[in-house]
From TrEMBL, chains A, B:
Cofactor(s) required, per the database record: pyridoxal 5'-phosphate
Ranges of residues in domain Tryptophan synthase beta chain-like PALP: 80-359
Comp. bias intervals (Polar residues): 60-74
Protein name: Tryptophan synthase beta chain-like PALP domain-containing protein
Molecular function terms from GO: ATP binding; D-serine ammonia-lyase activity; L-serine ammonia-lyase activity; magnesium ion binding; pyridoxal phosphate binding; serine racemase activity; threonine racemase activity
Keywords: Lyase, Pyridoxal phosphate
Domain of life the protein comes from: Eukaryota
InterPro entries per the UniProt record, alphabetical: TrpB-like_PALP (IPR001926), TrpB-like_PALP_sf (IPR036052)
Coiled-coil intervals, chain numbering: none
CDD domains: Thr-dehyd (cd01562)
Protein family (similarity comment): Belongs to the serine/threonine dehydratase family.
Region span, Disordered: 48-74, 404-428
Length: 428, 428
């Protein structure tokens, strides 16, 4: 990988520069809206819309024009207009293509394509980064060596093999994987491209933020950039808030970097709370990065601890306003709403941002408070759907298991009436 | 309903007129493409991409430019560029909104809005037409009386109640439902809006065809309408073929009506074969409309026989080139590919067109033959995804059951190695 010391600074301008490099190779994924999800998110208890007999919306669209939410009443209910950035429609099905293409184009720029082709790139990953790096390398005829545990699911191995013949197996511990990577580096002089903790990766992922802001401005104001008159002040046009999933931190770190000079756009991160998967949130409470996480959350893309460089961004209150965590049940409820109401497939990891908006009480109370303070009636919030790589089989099992265990757990009081699972507090 | 004798003629011009009426009220749904699905459809055996360890594509995109399919070899493999019309993203989740808005705006035009408001509209439906009509009526403050069997699933009743308070229950036989409808008509003088067998409905559904053609022309040629030079001839720009699901026939009839003066665009219909659900195809073989169908196909929107008016269109060879049927397994395979590769939710009924393109041998052989005859290497084919109204629970059950019964049926020889279920011939 390019030496971090020679990398561009983590600034909005660097995200723009990254975008110019990767634009020809990635999809400009759509930014979509949903009247149904807006109504659900802006109702006092979104979980009622998961029942078999959901209540009607108060803001049914008529004559192609939405009615206001005002009739819905209480001041203590946050109001949202949701803008979903569909990175589930990105190449290889996840935002990871952005970082991988940026890392590879930067290597070519620094070392020349011949040297990169001679040496190749290497990483260890069993997930979306493996596919993303092999695609990016394949695009420039660069060999990609991907170290995967032998126990990886066949579909993920097959997905990676679509673009590279060099899948190398290892044991499943991180020591075993890293030993194999070290061998490849020694033998081939291959260049390591880590999955998230590197400036080039972070800047690449940040282009999702850049792209969604431009799309939002065009959709909402019919112009890119500029200012509007708002409550007697000239205000830069943009989102009121953006929320993205936090795993290793590449996506959230890059997004926060891009929005770091947009004072009117607050950036939030979303994590799974299961078995301590909310290491970012817990780290902020403890005042230091948590280095080890061991969780089997269904949000399998978010099981890793936050990386070192990413931590420096995420723990900077001027860049990231706050982190919020959701339970497994809340993630599944969000996934079902996206599936049934929007007809879109998002993987569990990709739904945690929406799950926070819909179900996290602290988050919703904070929004109500800020909406009162600023007199703003509704937030335009950008919600990143980070990926869609799941299978019918995996989702069927996820929701079939729920049916079996739900009744029992409800009896045992593990699931509240609002459908939220009560997990033990694993912080620490 | 407007007296058919006073209705516009079933012509492309009438579809255009219908579109002008309903345009303010419906979504312009996206026309999307998928490199992965193109590669799968253009491979010798698309079913191999359903396995846990699918082979790589031959036409992996590089540098943002697709490589040709030529390396894939055989002349006996059809080649497709697929253009998916996403009516699953339409209001109420299905194309039915088009016909319902057209029927209602036509009634207002003929009788005046006061009279329609005084009388109200009535239909019997437990499916998408019920929701579509209640939404259309609600939009113009017209009462909608929807007769539904008491045994309807709660979610469908709830969906209809989003827009009307007048859900009236009946027994589940068609006689019982029709008796209740007759009562409503007698009591309220309400106007019947049938689900598919009426010119206004047919013309409304046909606007899906109009819209997708315009979107295709813009995406493919950067212009709407006009001609291009092709093999020494001036050729009207447009799809080579379009395929839509066939149930009652409103969607296919309307689509075929719109394309009836586009000689270079062939229109095909797709049906489920399970328990004789392919009544259109069987009717063509017998030379007469089949009036009764009793099938429990998973494509539950396609269980009805073709309507009388629709039959006159569909049995006209100058309008519909042919009808093809697929098995339950083939529908499920298509659904899974759309879900896993495109990250889009389509209900089983909405997938039958794609299932034909991927898995129907007669259809694929016919395409190969026509591609050889015309020297055209690849077809631009418009595939209508007609709706997306399913639930996570329903799909989980559908695919969980499959897992249980699959192995057994494979042993018993009921499922071939290609995954197709061998059903008894129920024609007659």
């Amino acid at each position: 990988m390019a030496d971090p010391s020679s990398c561009p600074l983590l600034t909005p301008a660097s995200v723009r520069a990254a975008y110019e490099k990767i634009k020809p190779y990635i999809h400009k994924t759509p930014l979509i809206t949903s009247t149904a999800l807006d109504a659900i998110a802006s109702s006092p208890d979104p979980s009622v819309y998961l029942s078999e007999n959901p209540p009607p919306f108060h803001n049914v669209p008529t004559n192609g024009v939405e009615q206001g939410n005002d009739s819905q009443g209480s001041d203590d209910v946050p109001k949202f207009k949701l803008w979903f950035k569909c990175e589930n429609f990105q190449k290889i099905g996840a935002f990871k293509a952005r970082g991988a293409f940026h890392a590879v184009t930067r290597l070519i720029e620094e070392l020349g394509v011949e040297e990169v082709r001679r040496r190749g790139v290497v990483t260890h990953s069993s997930g979306n980064h493996a596919q993303a790096l092999s695609l990016a390398a394949h695009t420039f005829s660069i060999p990609a060596y991907i170290v995967m545990p032998t126990i990886s699911t066949p579909s993920k191995i097959a997905g990676t093999r679509l673009y590279t013949n060099n899948v190398i197996f290892s044991g499943s511990t991180s020591q075993e994987r890293e030993a194999v990577v070290a061998d490849v580096i020694k033998e081939k002089n291959a260049i390591l491209v880590p999955p998230y903790d590197h400036p080039d990766i972070i800047l690449g992922q940040g282009t999702a933020g850049l792209e969604m802001e431009t799309q939002f401005q065009e959709a909402r104001y019919g112009q890119t950039g500029g200012r509007v008159q708002w409550k007697g002040e000239r205000k830069e046009i943009g989102f009121d808030a953006v929320i993205a999933p936090l795993g290793g931190g590449g996506l959230l770190g890059g997004t926060a970097t891009f929005f770091s000079n947009k004072y009117s756009t607050l950036v939030f991160g979303a994590e799974p709370s299961f078995q301590g998967g909310d290491d970012g949130r817990r780290g902020l409470l403890e005042g230091k990065r948590i280095e080890h996480v061991k969780t089997l959350t269904i949000a399998d893309g978010l099981r890793t601890p936050v990386g070192v460089t990413n931590w420096s961004i995420i723990s900077d209150k001027t860049k990231v306003e706050g982190l919020y965590a959701v339970t497994e049940e809340q993630i599944k409820m969000a996934l079902r709403l996206v599936f049934e109401r929007m007809k879109v497939v998002v993987e569990p990891s990709g739904c945690v941002g929406l799950a926070v908006v819909l179900f996290n009480k602290d988050f919703r109370d904070m929004v109500v408070r800020k909406q009162k303070e600023t007199g703003k009636k509704e937030w335009d919030i950008g919600v990143v759907f980070s990926g869609g790589n799941t299978t019918m089989k995996a989702l069927s099992q996820l929701f079939a298991e729920e049916k079996k265990t739900e009744a029992r757990e409800r009896e045992q009081g593990k699931i509240g009436l609002d459908g939220t699972r009560k997990v033990e507090d694993v912080a620490g």
